[in-house]
């Protein structure tokens, strides 16, 4: 049986350091020019290795590394791939320094002091394997295999590094399954209720559109290479419309920017739809041929007033009308929905409303229009069942599940729960590709759980993270550049190669080597633990999915990147993936979920406990360009970009007596976090913004605080997704 990515995610759970990045900067002088710096030019020579950036970013850049005498010396973009071009982003430029970081963990270590005390003893790999396997066997004998929990997410996005290697081990073990639903799944459900899918058209066709709408998306942080396609569209005369509660760089460049209050997007979309209907700017032919429930939508819109929309969103109606006119009068529009905006209690409902707006404007089914959210065609087409050896799990029908967003609840010292119900206690946790003490919401509770003396915590990482400092055993991880892998795109339609760039540094081991060798120490002798990296990749490619027709291991190895097969235009045949085969403006799917089947106007505050709902500020914690989730904190250059600031509107700053660079304290019933104030109109009154996933141990004020000390671990309305942005806080001077 072939398993697609979405179904799989629901069920799976001493080195010298480069101290300068001058050799990585573009535009270094030619050797023929006077004053050229030969030592910098030398870094660009050497053997070329192609490797895809496996961070959790929509760009998914294909990079070219230069290697001299077994050492990585230089990184550039693979200019052969137009999507990437010649240069990585600011983070990608640091990969040499990232790989040879001064604080890299190079050998296994065992805790010898109290948890969090920072006292370690160097041990051998044999000793580490003996300790880990012995403790796991003991836990299983006393409590059963579900007492073991893996935790991981996007520290490594390769098919082997994220899935194929580790999952084979945990399937065989019978461990509790981790539901990795933190990122995109609320919008999956909302979009599924409209078109039946979250997939969309090729972003490389964006230059052909008349209107580009960035809704809740910050391309400068997580899709910087996509901006060139937006700019090409604008060069061709397209309009740029932006909806975002934060004034992002692209919002500053927009023809029209709407700045609603956080998570009021359903109201805003409804207001725009109401205007389109009243001014006859909808596409009647498209609606008649492709949709169901338009009459019900018109009736629902009649119940919603512009006064209500303006009051809830804070967007002046004339500004909204201007947006609607430009949008409605465009022949073809591309709408790019961001990932962050759907991380709210009403995430699915907001996503649904925005997709409905795009539908009544007739913006599906042509090259140059469509709705882009999560283009996982290159990902879903692979054979997850075989690649992860899911058949090794013998308790698939009975095993307990833990949502990774609720990790604090699952490892609670006295009352472990998941999805609101009690679970069997977790007594062993293996953390890889992640840093849950910093990344998961309610960080204080995460730390309390990790500090349990009866929780055996193993961390496989290459630097000392907030989670690693609480471990019983730390085993050194190789970076992604030290093994072979594939990495599929999730914006454009590419499968890309990850060639091994260098040998593992120190005693580090890549994910598959670690879990394969640990499996052998556990006594697992299945054939699935005898294969090499190529064998796993071939298993993933053993698929009959149309997207991979004609695509082989040899083809990818030779060409470095291949575009999977996706019909164009997307939805060009007028067939949708809903039960009716139509775009559903009235949805029984939503009705069965307990929501209004057309437009549900519920807001996150409706679901908050009074002690949080009554706090004065909504907290936004988005990505920033200098970091990818919890990654890059080991790079000195990147650390110099502040991650412990909080942006506050001038109106609020005056009210609270806050000035630029003042130390401030944000707080709620989960805890407190300390930041430096930045007074700016980038955020609306009543909102503060602090970067996501900053580390506790990196707090420059030394107060062990981070943004996720404050964030909620309550799940979204549908899809089991995280709802970080449905958090309210109080504010005071520190």
UniProtKB/TrEMBL annotation:
Cofactor(s) required for function per UniProt: Mo-bis(molybdopterin guanine dinucleotide)
Entry keywords, A to Z: Iron, Iron-sulfur, Metal-binding, Molybdenum, Oxidoreductase, Signal
SUPFAM superfamilies the record matches: ADC-like, Formate dehydrogenase/DMSO reductase, domains 1-3
Record InterPro entries: Asp_de-COase-like_dom_sf, MoPterin_dinucl-bd_dom, Mopterin_OxRdtase, Mopterin_OxRdtase_4Fe-4S_dom, Mopterin_OxRdtase_prok_CS, Prok_Mopterin_Oxidored, TAT_signal
Keyword set includes Iron-sulfur: yes
PANTHER family: OXIDOREDUCTASE YYAE-RELATED, TRIMETHYLAMINE-N-OXIDE REDUCTASE
Name listed for the protein in its UniProt record: Twin-arginine translocation pathway signal protein
Classification of source organism: Bacteria, Pseudomonadati, Pseudomonadota, Gammaproteobacteria, Alteromonadales
């Amino acid at each position: 049986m072939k398993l697609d990515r979405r179904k799989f995610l629901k069920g799976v759970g001493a080195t010298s350091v480069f101290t300068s990045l001058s050799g990585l900067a573009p535009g270094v002088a030619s050797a023929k020019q006077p004053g050229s710096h030969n030592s910098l030019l030398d870094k660009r020579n050497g053997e070329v290795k192609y490797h895809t950036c496996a961070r959790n970013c929509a760009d998914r850049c294909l990079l070219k590394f230069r290697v001299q005498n077994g050492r990585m010396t230089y990184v550039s973009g693979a200019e052969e791939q137009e999507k990437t071009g010649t240069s990585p982003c600011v983070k990608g430029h640091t990969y040499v320094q990232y790989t040879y970081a001064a604080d890299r963990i190079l050998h296994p270590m065992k805790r010898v002091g109290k948890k969090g005390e920072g006292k370690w003893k160097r041990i051998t790999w044999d000793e580490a394997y003996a300790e880990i396997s012995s403790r796991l066997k003991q836990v299983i004998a006393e409590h059963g295999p579900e007492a073991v929990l893996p935790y991981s997410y996007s520290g490594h996005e390769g098919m082997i590094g994220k899935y194929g290697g580790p999952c084979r081990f945990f399937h065989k073990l019978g461990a509790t399954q981790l539901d990795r639903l933190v990122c995109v799944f609320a919008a999956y459900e909302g979009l599924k209720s409209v078109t039946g899918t979250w997939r969309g058209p090729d972003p490389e066709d964006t230059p052909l559109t008349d209107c580009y709408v960035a809704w809740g998306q910050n391309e400068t942080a997580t899709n910087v290479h996509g901006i060139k396609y937006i700019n090409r569209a604008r060069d061709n005369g397209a309009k740029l419309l932006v909806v975002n509660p934060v004034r992002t760089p692209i919002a500053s460049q927009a023809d029209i920017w709407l700045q609603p209050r956080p998570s009021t997007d359903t109201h805003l979309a409804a207001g725009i739809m109401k205007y389109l209907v009243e001014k006859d700017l909808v596409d009647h032919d498209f609606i008649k041929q492709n949709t169901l429930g338009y009459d019900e939508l018109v009736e629902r819109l009649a119940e919603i007033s512009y006064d209500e929309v303006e009051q809830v969103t804070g967007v002046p109606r004339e500004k909204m009308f201007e947006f609607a006119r430009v949008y409605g009068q465009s022949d073809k529009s591309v709408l790019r929905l961001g990932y962050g905006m759907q991380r709210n209690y009403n995430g699915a409902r907001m996503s649904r409303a925005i997709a409905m707006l795009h539908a009544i404007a007739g913006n599906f089914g042509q090259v140059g229009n469509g709705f882009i959210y999560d283009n996982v065609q290159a990902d879903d087409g692979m054979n997850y069942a075989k690649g992860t050896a899911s058949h090794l799990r013998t308790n698939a029908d009975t095993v307990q599940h833990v949502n990774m967003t609720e990790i604090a609840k699952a490892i609670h010292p006295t009352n472990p729960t998941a999805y609101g119900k009690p679970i069997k206690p977790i007594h062993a946790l293996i953390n890889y590709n992640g840093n849950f003490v910093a990344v998961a919401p309610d960080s204080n509770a995460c730390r309390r759980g990790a500090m349990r003396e009866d929780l055996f915590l193993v961390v496989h990482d290459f630097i000392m993270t907030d989670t690693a400092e609480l471990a019983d055993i730390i085993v050194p991880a190789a970076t992604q550049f030290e093994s072979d892998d594939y990495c599929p795109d999730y914006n454009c339609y590419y499968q890309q190669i990850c060639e091994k760039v260098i040998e593992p540094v120190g005693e580090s081991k890549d994910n598959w080597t670690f879990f394969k060798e640990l499996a052998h120490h556990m006594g697992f002798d299945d054939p699935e633990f005898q294969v090499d990296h190529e064998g796993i990749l071939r298993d993933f490619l053993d698929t009959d999915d149309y997207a991979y027709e004609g695509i082989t291991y040899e083809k990818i190895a030779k060409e470095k990147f291949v575009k999977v097969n996706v019909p164009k235009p997307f939805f060009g045949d007028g067939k949708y993936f809903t039960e009716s085969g139509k775009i559903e403006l009235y949805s029984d799917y939503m009705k069965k979920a307990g929501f209004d089947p057309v437009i549900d106007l519920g807001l996150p505050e409706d679901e908050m406990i009074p002690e949080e709902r009554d706090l004065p500020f909504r907290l936004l914690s988005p990505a920033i360009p200098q970091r990818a989730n919890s990654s890059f904190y080991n790079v000195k250059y990147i650390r110099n970009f502040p991650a412990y600031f909080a942006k506050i509107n001038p109106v609020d700053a005056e009210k609270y007596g806050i000035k630029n660079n003042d130390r401030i304290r944000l707080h709620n019933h989960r805890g407190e976090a300390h930041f430096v104030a930045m007074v700016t109109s980038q955020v609306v009154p009543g909102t503060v913004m602090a970067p996501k996933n900053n580390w506790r141990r990196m707090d420059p004020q030394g107060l062990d605080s981070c943004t996720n000390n404050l964030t909620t671990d309550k799940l979204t309305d549908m899809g089991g997704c995280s709802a970080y942005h449905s958090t309210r806080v109080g504010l005071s001077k520190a």
